[in-house]
Amino acid sequence: HLVDIAHAQPLSHAYTxxxxxxxxxxxxGTDHGExxxxxxxxxxxxxxxxxxxxxxxxxxxSIGGNRWxxx
Length: 71
Description:
The protein is 45% helix and 13% strand. By secondary structure, it is α+β, with helices and mostly antiparallel strands.
């Protein structure tokens, strides 16, 4: 089945809670890890755990310099 890109929901809608918060920030253009941590208001432990989960799931990738992008 083809996906209608024009009407597709943002990736963040596929996740809940902390993951959704971080994906929403990345989708809106925030890509630096420090900014993601600050704007998400997550604890460092929760931030790192969630980012690791998203990376292992293949949803985000490191683009160097503590910057992140959607895959």
